[in-house]
Every structure is written in C-alpha cells, then in structure tokens.
C-alpha cells in the first residue's frame, strides 16, 4: 500500500502500476481497487479468490515458478505456480470472469546460470498458449529481477541480457504484441549507496577450542566489534542475500601492524545479529568508522519497512562533471554566464580538494 501511494504521489498513473507481490493483504487489494491499480499478480487459488472478492475488476498476471536451485535467494521455494497447475488456475480465472493478461517469474537473486532466464521465458510461452486456448488475451511478460548491479559479479549483466534477448527473439519476437517488463531495482541501486557506520562497543572473546592453548602457548581469541547498525536494520542484506559485507577501514593499516581475527555484530542483544565473522583486521577502537560499498539493495529500504521509519541519514554527493551536466539541465540558459563563477560541489574528496572555494555540498534527502 505504501509503495502504491508513493509512486502515485510522484505522478505515476495507475495504469502503469503492477502490484506484483503474489502474497497480498486484503486491505492492500482494496486500496489498489480504490485507487485504480488494476494489474495484480497471483500464483494460487486462494490468492485469486481474494482478488475476485475484493477487486473484481482486476486484471491478473500469473506468477510461475522457476528453476532457481543455484540462486542465492530462491524465491520459487515460496512463490510461483508450477507449470502443471497453470492450466487449472487459468480455468478458475476464466470461471470467475477474471482476465489473465500476462505471465511473470523471478529466478531469484545471484543466479550463476543465465540460461535459467531462457528456460523461464520458454515456460512463459507455454503458459501464454494455455491462456490463448482458454480465451485469455495475454500481452504482458514480467522477467522479474535479481540482475547484478556491481562490477565483478560472477555473471555480468551483459551476459544475462544477451541470453534474455536471444530467448525473446525466439519465443516473443518483435511485433508479437507483448510488453516486456522487468524489476531493475537491484541493478540500478546496488552500487549507488556506500554505508558508513561507527563502532559502538568492543570486546575480546575466547574461542572454545580445546588443545589450542597448549599448542600456541595462549588461548585463541577473536575481537568482537559491535556496530551502530545490524542485520535487523541496514545490514538485513545479510539475511536476504546471504552476503558477507567486507569493510573498508577509515585508516589504511601499516604493513607491520598485527591483524586479529575479528567479527562484526549489530547493536541488538540477539546472538543472531551477526554481520560478518572470520575477518582479519587491525586493532580498531570504539568511535572508529567502517565503510561498506555496494549497499544499495535490501538495506535502507528494507530497514525502513521493518522498523517503520528511516533511521539513517542519507547524504547525496556528486562529482564536478555530474554537477555541471545536471546544472545544464536545471538552470535556464540565460543564467549560464552567472553560473560559471559559482562554486561547484565535489564528491567526497575524490577530486583534488584544493580546487574548492568551499567545502563539498551535500543535499538533504528531504530535498531530493
């Protein structure tokens, strides 16, 4: 409901919104009906019945299961109808006078095999043919998400795109009248955010390894650092994506500095609030800051949903080149000459700071 309200508030028409979660609350279905959102997803009889009762004018997209056994996040364990059940669901929709207008799937996040997309597109073609036989006019194909958003991913985005385009050429060629959708959130935002968190507590913990003390002459230990954020907040990507965040240190350690076995924990008393273990770090102290790159997906947004409010401060920064390009789009032409003498904000010290006539300018999130 909050997401539908948000996108409509910024001017997105209801006809452009698809309520794609296949597990919906009745209150949210009624909200969609009241505000003109007609495209909804389903993957079982119960979900179809809920929509028929609360939003009879809805047009449905059938969510099908995929082969995602190698994905880091396997959504088909919980969502998606099997190919065997699709005809039955399409028949039920026809019986209830609900039009099914498309097919969606999601192969999960971190899938190492691009061919999984090709197989899912082929499966979608079969469901389209089932729908046509039963009188459904299907014209939407939703490819899901999970696309990599960082350089150095096991499978590059370009490889995935090549496989998808080849499969679309085969099963949904240009001119066939099918609109192709995809969820590109992770691709767009993963690398857009860098997280800075401080150490709020530190303690040494003895490792329970009988016999090691006699071998080494001292009891093995690890240093546990508690950070101001944990897996119940911004680091919930550890739970969602099985990630192991690696920090960038505020100060680069010297070559002769001893490294210690370390773990990072969140602020919660729960033993499950573990961010990372087995890291070899120099001695750090309370108040030191750690930086984590590529923290845009399943971090701030999910933390806000889980706790009901955004707890972190978001600061926007851009390079001189980006600022000048943006300025050219926003300022009227007649102001260009005056703008030449203005100080330009730079990004986080990445450019030479002695060229500044003032400190870097950051824009509060509320203004953006």
Radius of gyration: 25 Å
Number of helices: 12
CATH architecture label name of the largest domain? Alpha-Beta Barrel
Strand percentage lies at 15-25%
User: How does the major sheet shape up?
Assistant: 6 strands, parallel
Shape: elongated
What's the name of the CATH homologous superfamily of the largest domain?
Answer: Alanine racemase
Strand order across the largest sheet: 1-2-3-4-5-6
Distance between the termini: 22 Å
SS-based structural class?
alpha/beta
CATH class of the largest domain: Alpha Beta
Q: Kindly report the CATH topology of the largest domain.
A: TIM Barrel
User: In which range does the helix fraction lie?
Assistant: 25-40%
The secondary-structure element order is HEHEHEHEHEHEHEHEHEEEEHEHHE
Low-confidence stretches: 339-368
Subcellular location: Cell projection, Axon; Cell projection, Dendrite; Cytoplasm, Perinuclear region; Cytoplasmic granule
GO cellular component, one term: nucleus
GO biological process, one term: positive regulation of polyamine transmembrane transport
Protein name: Antizyme inhibitor 2
């Amino acid at each position: 409901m909050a997401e539908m309200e948000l996108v409509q508030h910024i001017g997105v028409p209801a006809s452009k919104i698809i309520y794609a979660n296949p597990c919906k609350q009745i209150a949210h279905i009624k909200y969609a009906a009241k505000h003109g959102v007609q495209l909804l997803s389903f993957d079982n009889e119960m979900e179809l019945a809920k929509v028929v009762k609360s939003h009879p004018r809805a047009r449905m997209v059938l969510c099908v299961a995929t082969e995602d056994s190698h994905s880091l996040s396997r959504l088909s364990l919980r969502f998606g109808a099997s190919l065997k059940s699709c005809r039955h669901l399409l028949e039920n929709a026809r019986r209830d006078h609900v039009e099914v207008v498309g097919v969606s799937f999601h192969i999960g996040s971190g899938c190492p095999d691009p061919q999984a997309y090709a197989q899912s597109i082929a499966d979608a073609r079969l469901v389209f043919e089932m729908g046509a036989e039963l009188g459904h006019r299907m014209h939407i194909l939703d490819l899901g998400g999970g696309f990599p958003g960082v350089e150095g991913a096991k499978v590059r985005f370009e490889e995935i795109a090549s496989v998808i385009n080849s499969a679309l050429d085969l099963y949904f060629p240009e001119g066939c009248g099918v609109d192709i959708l995809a969820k590109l959130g992770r691709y767009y935002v993963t690398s857009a955010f860098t997280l800075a968190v401080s150490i709020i507590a530190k303690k040494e913990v003895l490792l329970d390894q009988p016999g090691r003390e006699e071998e080494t002459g001292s009891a093995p230990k690890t240093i546990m650092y508690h950070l101001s954020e944990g897996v119940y907040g911004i680091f919930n990507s550890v739970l969602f994506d099985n990630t192991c965040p690696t920090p960038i240190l505020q100060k680069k350690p010297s070559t002769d500095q001893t490294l210690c076995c370390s773990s990072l924990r969140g602020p919660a008393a729960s033993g499950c609030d573990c961010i990372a273990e087995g890291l070899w770090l120099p001695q750090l102290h309370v108040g030191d800051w750690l930086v984590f790159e590529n923290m845009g997906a399943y971090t701030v947004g999910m933390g806000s949903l889980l706790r009901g409010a955004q707890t972190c401060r978001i600061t926007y920064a851009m390079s001189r080149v980006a600022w000048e390009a943006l300025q050219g789009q926003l300022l009227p032409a007649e102001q260009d000459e005056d703008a030449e003498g203005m100080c330009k904000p730079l990004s986080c010290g990445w450019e030479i700071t002695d060229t500044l006539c003032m400190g870097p300018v950051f824009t509060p999130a509320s203004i953006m």
